[in-house]
Specification:
The chain is an all-alpha fold. Helix content is 67%, strand content 0%.
């Protein structure tokens, strides 16, 4: 006979876990926000560099092609995507490592949390990076609804792109045909 845990037992266990490791959660969270904040500033700088290299002041529907066809600008945008993916995965992996280590009743330390976080980031190269970037582009419309990151808070697909999808009134064959 298997033992089932009730919702309240799980909730009580979660609160106990948070209370027992509160200082570790807070300190790692503050450090992580600091690192991601510096990374967000670096992302802003790399994006501004891409705009500068393409000779544009912003990217919109009229100049996106010229920005993407400029080789130097394209290199800066690829660098932007790689840095973004690295920071996003670092943030997610650190939170996962923090929860995993606290659930397994291991002593939490910066060294353990970040060793586990960076240890898994080495798998994030080559085709895995390309797959992840494709995944991020596909999930931008719902960024922040299911899994949140400080990097995806202000990200969305611009209206001039999503507006094309909303112009059609039905997805199937029309009733008038």
């Amino acid at each position: 006979m298997s033992m089932k845990r009730s919702y309240w037992q799980d909730l009580k266990g979660a609160f106990y876990l948070i209370w027992r490791n509160k200082w570790s959660f807070i300190s790692v969270g503050i450090l992580l926000q600091f690192v991601v904040g510096i990374g967000a500033a670096a992302l802003s700088w790399v994006f501004q560099l891409a705009l500068l290299l393409s000779g544009e002041s912003n990217i919109d529907k009229n100049n996106i092609l010229s920005t993407l066809t400029n080789p130097l600008s394209l290199v800066a945008l690829v660098l932007f995507a790689i840095v973004f993916a690295f920071l996003f995965m670092l943030e997610m992996r650190t939170m996962i490592a923090l929860i995993y280590l606290s659930r397994t009743d291991q002593h939490l330390s910066f060294k353990k949390v970040f060793r586990q976080s960076f240890g898994r980031l080495k798998d994030f190269s080559g085709w895995n990076l390309l797959h992840f970037l494709f995944y991020m582009v596909l999930t931008l419309p719902v960024a922040g609804l299911f899994i949140g990151s400080t990097l995806t808070d202000g990200l969305y697909i611009p209206n001039f792109i999503t507006g094309e999808f909303s112009k059609t009134t039905s997805w199937g064959p029309s009733a008038s045909s």
